[in-house]
Design a protein that fits this description.
heterotrimer, A mainly alpha (128), B mainly alpha (363), C mainly alpha (168), A: 128 residues, mainly alpha, B: mainly alpha, 2 domains, two-stranded antiparallel sheet, 71% helix, 1% strand, flat
């Protein structure tokens, strides 16, 4: 375990660094992108690259600190479970937001290259 | 250098008193009411600083959100609904001078009182004794001497349920009284019976399927938080609130008619009563044992004390359970989870049904 | 009876989550974990599980592992790189739109896996699932094609293949 600890620490710090970078880029993207639907892609970077990855990194760092004793497994385990929750729930939030914004017309999809959903709604295939 | 250090609070106090006085004056003579509200918020901020220096951090914690946040917000809304400018030609000069003078006098009196208090306590910042006390608590919640310890490594749970058990009991009883009030108001109401239909009700299939996967995990994490409250950060209330997320997910993602398959209000009330009985039992269990075997014991006693030599075992087979703390956390988890389930279910009764019931009662 | 059989996989899954979250495996953890997992399994078993038999097929776990490895180390990295490049590019080359892709899987969990995989990769967001569960509507940051089959090859073909192996 002693030999593994520095490796875990380095991997953890690299993952946290990636997370920080992704958060900054996602913030820039939030500002630059033109409308709600495109901003959702920046939000995805925020959720996966900016939250999921650094939480895993924090768990690895916690695992590598032996001074914490038994408590470090609690920290790491809570981190892993949180990361899995995030992985399952973050896309659901994005999807439900996108769906609600689209059908309530709260956000307008412009600029757009193509909108096949609108065409299907107009044809009466989908009633929402 | 140390002189300068001990002078700092007085300098800050004087500056903030002066600045708040100026802000009050500006707020009074300003004709644009929005700006006046802002000046008043600035004055409140300085007052918060003064309160902090006078060593009342709990008042600061209440004062900042209310006086700096809530009050100006309400005032600004009120101003927006009415008129932005005072139509009388400002406040007369004499009135404003009187107000300014009285505020100055108040500040001077407050400063004088501070100096007097300094003469008594010789210190303005929180003394180092307080930190010693905290260290003592952290060190002795799990100690070799059972007579002075609650045998739990988690200091917060130890203080909440053992050292200050009676306080916590009254705090939690406030919430239970609130739920009893809600139940009493809604005593004739019930969730209408309706078949749950997968294709019509609720959110999209992605939301439903992921909720199906995540619900048992949320509940098990809540159970873990509650049952390990005496070992790691957490406890019964935290676990119960985490678990209550499941009920709200069931109601909002699926439908209230789907949620009633798991949590009927009557069953939730029953389980909540079991949880409350568990809390009462854990509070009195040592006293009951003492009564039965004829030894002195206290209510809310956990480990043996010097004049009450009985207590619950703090470990079973080498596993720390901290006596009553585990019982408290388990019962509190059940009671809080079911209390929130009742509230969510009551809140999701459709308004038409409520109106029907009310009409029936009136006529 | 079927209720109890369905409860078993849920109980095992929740027990694993319990032990991982707790981070220790003393007797206290195992006893409380088993009690909690059994209660949760009985309450939620019939909601979560439709076919218990699938849990016994070991090849599904290997496919799941392969899915996770492919997803985290290839799909996510590629998608992140692509969108980050678009954000940092001064001209911001985006061409957003909603495309329709066919999806051919049997179980609801496969649809969840495919849709969540699509949403979790930056650049694509699932906006709507067709009521007959045969089409997904995807908001795509760079619409290359509007033909459903070609879009499927570009976005979801690999996810669908893995999801079918794991969940169907």
């Amino acid at each position: 375990m002693n030999l593994l600890n520095p490796v875990l620490t380095i991997i953890g710090y690299v993952l946290v660094g990636i997370g920080a970078f992704c958060q900054v880029v996602a913030g820039i993207g939030m500002n630059r992108f033109p409308n709600f639907f495109v901003r959702l892609h920046a939000a995805t970077i925020c959720a996966i690259g900016g939250s999921f990855v650094p939480i895993i990194g924090c768990s690895l760092i916690a695992l590598s600190i032996e001074e914490f004793g038994v408590i470090r497994f609690f920290l790491a385990g809570a981190g892993f479970v949180t990361a899995v929750f995030l992985l399952i729930l973050a896309p659901v939030g994005s999807h439900l937001l996108a769906k609600a914004a689209y059908f309530s017309k709260a956000a307008v999809l412009y600029p757009k290259a193509v909108d096949l959903l609108e065409e299907d709604v107009e044809r009466g295939e989908i009633r929402e | 250098m140390s002189d300068l250090y001990s002078l700092t609070p007085y300098v800050v106090l004087a500056v903030s008193a002066l600045a708040s006085t100026i802000a009050v004056y500006l707020a009074i003579i300003e004709r644009d009411l929005i700006k006046a509200v802002l000046y008043s918020a600035i004055q409140s901020t300085f007052y918060a600083l003064i309160f902090y220096l006078l060593m009342v951090p709990d008042i600061v914690l209440v004062y900042i959100p209310v006086a700096v946040g809530l009050l100006p917000a309400i005032l600004i809304i009120a101003v927006k609904k009415t008129e932005k400018y005072e139509d009388v030609g400002g406040v007369p000069r004499t009135t404003s001078i009187i107000v300014l003078l009285s505020v100055t006098v108040f500040t001077l009196i407050a400063g004088y009182l501070l100096v007097v208090s300094h003469a008594i306590t010789f210190d303005v910042f929180p003394s180092l004794d307080a930190r010693l006390l905290a260290k003592w608590f952290l060190a002795t919640t799990l100690w070799w001497n059972r007579l002075f310890s609650s045998m739990s490594p988690e200091a917060v749970t130890a203080i909440v349920w053992d050292y200050r058990g009676l306080d916590t009991y009254f705090e939690t009883s406030v919430m239970y009284l609130a739920i009893i009030g809600a139940l009493a108001i809604a005593r004739y109401l019930d969730i209408p019976r309706k078949e749950y239909r997968e294709d019509v009700m609720g959110m999209s299939i992605i939301g439903k399927m992921s909720t199906r996967v995540i619900m048992p995990m949320i509940i098990i994490v809540a159970i873990s938080i509650a049952l390990h409250g005496h070992l790691t950060p957490g406890g019964g209330f935290q676990g119960g609130v985490t678990g209550a997320v499941t009920v709200s997910l069931l109601i909002f993602i699926f439908s209230v008619y789907f949620a009633t398959r798991f949590f009927k209000i009557s069953i939730a009330i029953l389980l909540r009563i079991i949880g409350l009985a568990g809390i009462v039992l854990s509070a009195t269990i040592v006293a009951i044992i003492g009564f039965l075997i004829g030894q002195p014991a206290y209510i809310f006693q956990n480990q043996p004390k010097i004049i009450a030599q009985i207590g619950l075992p703090y470990e079973i087979g080498g596993n720390l359970i901290s006596g009553t703390l585990l019982l408290f956390n388990t019962s509190e988890f059940l009671a809080v989870l079911m209390g929130f389930a009742i509230l969510f279910l009551l809140l999701s009764i459709p308004e038409e049904n409520v109106l029907e019931v009310i009409k029936g009662e009136v006529e | 009876m079927s209720r109890i059989i369905r409860a078993i996989p849920v109980a095992i899954l929740t027990f694993i989550v319990y032990i991982v979250f707790t981070g220790s495996a003393t007797h206290f953890d195992i006893v409380t974990g088993v009690i909690g997992a059994v209660i949760v399994g009985i309450v939620f078993g019939s909601v979560v599980i439709t076919n218990t038999y699938k849990f016994l097929q070991l090849q599904r776990y290997f496919w799941g592992l392969a899915y996770a490895l492919y997803y985290f180390f290839i799909a996510e990295v590629r998608a992140h790189y692509d969108v980050i490049k678009r954000i940092l590019n001064p001209k911001m080359p985006i061409n957003p739109g909603i495309v329709k892709i066919p999806i051919d899987v049997a179980s609801d969990y496969s649809i969840l896996a495919v849709a969540n995989s699509i949403t979790n990769t930056p650049g694509t967001v699932t906006v709507y699932v067709h009521p007959n569960k045969k089409y997904l509507y995807i908001n795509w940051i760079d619409v290359v094609t509007r033909e459903p089959e070609e879009a499927r090859k570009a976005i979801s073909y690999v996810f669908e293949k893995f999801a079918k192996k794991v969940f169907d």
